[in-house]
Amino acid sequence: MTDIIHLLPDAVANQIAAGEVVQRPASAVKELLENSIDAGADKIQLVVKDAGKALIQIIDNGCGMSVTDARMCFERHATSKVKKAEDLFAIRTMGFRGEAMASIAAIAQVEMKTRRHEDEIGTCISIEGAQVINQEPVATAAGTQISIKNLFFNTPARRNFLKSNPVEMRHILDEFQRVALAHPGVFFSLHHDGVEIFNLPKGNLKQRIVHLFGNNYNERLVPVEEETTIINLKGYIGKPAFAKKTRGEQFFFVNNRFIKDPYLNHAVSSAFEELLPDDSYPLYVLFIEIDPSKIDVNVHPTKTEIKYLDEKSIYAILKSAVKRSIGRYNIAPSLDFDQETGFSNMITQKAVEDIVPPSINFNPDFNPFASDKSVANSYASSPRNYEAKPSTKNWGSLYEITEQPVVEQTSIYADETVLETKQKQYMQLHNRYIVSQIKSGLMVIDQQMAHERILYERFLVHLEDRKGASQQSLFPQTITLNANDFELAKSLLDDIKSLGFDVREFGKNTLVVEGVPVDLGSSNINETQLFEQLIEGFKNSQQELKLSKRDSLARSLAKNSAIKAGTSLGQEEMNTLIDELFACKTPNFSVSGKPIIQTITLAELDKKFEKS
Questions:
Q1: How far apart are CA 224 and CA 236, in angstroms?
Q2: Sequence-distant (≥ 6) Cβ neighbours of residue 47 within 8 angstroms
Q3: DSSP of 507-532, one letter per residue?
Q4: Phi and psi dihedrals of 542, rounded to 5?
Q5: How far apart are CA 218 and CA 236, in angstroms?
Q6: Where do the DNA mismatch repair protein S5 domain residues begin and end (predicted)?
Q7: 525: region left, alpha or beta (phi > 0 left; psi from -120 to 50 alpha)
Q8: Residue 257 and residue 183: Cα distance in Å, rounded?
Q9: Is 386 in contact with 364 (CB distance < 8 Å)?
Q10: Residue 190 bridge partners (DSSP)
């Protein structure tokens, strides 16, 4: 029997390795951006076409490479950052394994132009499927320019598993934002299909956050800074009032490397305890500076997980620092024991001698049963002057109410047959529940969940037939979103219009809302807030429940536009709400699967009153 174990060809081994390193276009963007940072570039341009499937191009002004280095960088395990095993515990660079360029070259058509600052001529190398097609001298700017075309061209199965362009573009934006946040002193730009998405000048961290997420973030940020012998911590947290229902604006960086760490995330969440609801997530951009010998970054292929030597101490420092910042900038309620201001407005500024005590005047001769004339005489004979003269005229009208016919009211204990012949009467309980008598006892309906169910099913119909009616706004509202949410909104625009929104693009990351769905009624509607809640709710449904796009949209809009607990309803409004609820396909359960209707039988009531 012949031997069956053999070495894989380099091309096949590189393709296998590429599956771990390059999972989608965003993975290639991350690796190339980090290489540019390691090269010392202070100006990095990213150009993307077809969400990275057709082209990913990185242009930087870093140190560049020699002819030998340019050829060597495409070999597996070729790196300039690690020379011996001990170097793994002193890593300050983003990359160190030497796998990214070889993996990218194995599954794409790559062209690289590079030149060192001290050289007069550069090098151009073309590689396709790990095979070098061409290498020649070229005149190019100092630094490196890499173009990746037709990603996964030789692995069609992997290419078929890529998501739609909007989804892949959002992943690219995520990676771009993480690298840009970690290096505010570097100029970044991003173009997608010829449109400029970002142009980020050099600046400090706060300026970078505002440029990435929008000018309205300027007032939301609270600085955090702490220096200890274990770690140095700096960055910003968001004010609790601006917390969102979805994750996505939580960033941890360890030695400028973006990481995902649920343990440290819990430390920040604990600091916000009792300031936020359970389903809200605050913004934070926090940087931890730590001795590289006390961490291990060589844990995961994406290098987003880190092992710490003393993670409990880091947890405690992080929690206390965030909590102190919350208190220091008066986000959390606090008491001032030096001055109690509760009665400060009641203290008069007059001198004591100017204060006149109040006096009480009365007429001891006043007779309420005397005639008008005798009353007038008593006033005249009184030594005091009275400004008001009480009148006893028409006092008998006080008793006329007893002669009015009594309006017959339907008792909740009336016979069911009587209720069937008349219009049912509903009662609102604490402006939260609607109570009605039924033959077997009482029926209690949650008004908010009932309205959510009605709107949800109505919006689903609109999304199917594309006939949602719109109510034009008197004054159109412009909405500026961050780049990620704007890309998401663009991908949902057709479905959003089907719901009844009249909305269109209006420049960079901006939309104009000119109308809202008629189903939302004529109440005062904040179009900006409603639209932002729609996008936020959609993301939450996608993350938590993995629902379809249309179902997530209908669910989000129904939850955000339904009447809330505490809303007072008239009898006609309650009648309409109940009629529409029982016309739904699933009237008994809310959008989130909770019961809308509860019944209390007479037997249960008798048991409460301990009746046999």
A1: 5
A2: 55, 56, 57, 58, 59, 191
A3: STTEEEEEEEEGGG-SS---HHHHHH
A4: -70, -40
A5: 11
A6: 209-327
A7: beta
A8: 10
A9: no
A10: 46, 198
CB 551 within 8 A of CB 495: no
Which bin fits 246, alpha (ψ -120 to 50), beta or left (φ > 0)? beta
> Which residues have a Cβ under 8 Å from the Cβ of 112 and sit 6 or more positions away?
70, 123, 124, 125, 127, 144, 145, 146, 147
Chain mean position to CA 179: 20
Give the strand order in the sheet containing 470-480.
Answer: 470-480, 510-517, 502-505
Q: Which tens digits make up the pLDDT trace of 142-172? A: 999 999 999 988 888 888 888 888 889 999 9
DSSP letters spanning 82-150: -SSGGGGGS--SS--SS-HHHHHHHSSEEEEEEE-TT-SSEEEEEEETTEEEEEEEE---SEEEEEEES
pLDDT-derived band at 334, boundaries 50, 70, 90 = very low
Dist. CA 536–CA 85, nearest whole Å: 46
Phi, psi angle pair for 604, to nearest 5° = -65, -40
Whether 104 has a pLDDT exceeding 60, the answer reads yes
Q: Decide if 503 contacts 514 (C-beta within 8 A).
A: yes
Residue with tokens 């590189």: 14
The whole-angstrom separation of Cα 177 and Cα 29 is: 11
Rg of the chain over CA atoms, in angstroms?
A: 36
Reported residue count of the chain is 612
Q: CA separation (Å) from 232 to 226, 325, 464?
A: 6, 15, 54
308: which 2 tokens? 């710490």
CA distance 502 to 512: 8
Q: Is 187 helix (H, G, I), strand (E, B) or coil?
A: strand
Q: What percent of the chain has pLDDT over 70?
A: 76
CA dihedral 201, 203, 204, 210 (to 10 degrees): -40
For residues 538 and 353, give the distance between their C-alpha atoms in angstroms, rounded to a whole number: 68
Cβ count near 198 (within 10 Å):
19
Whose structure tokens read 């598993």? 161
pTM of the prediction?
0.70
Count of CB atoms situated within 10 Å of the CB of 96: 18
Nearest C-alpha neighbor of 267 from the set 224, 303, 298 = 224
Strands 43-49 and 187-192 turn out to be: parallel
Q: Is 505 helix (H, G, I), strand (E, B) or coil?
A: strand
As a whole number of angstroms, the distance between CA 251 and CA 175 comes to 12
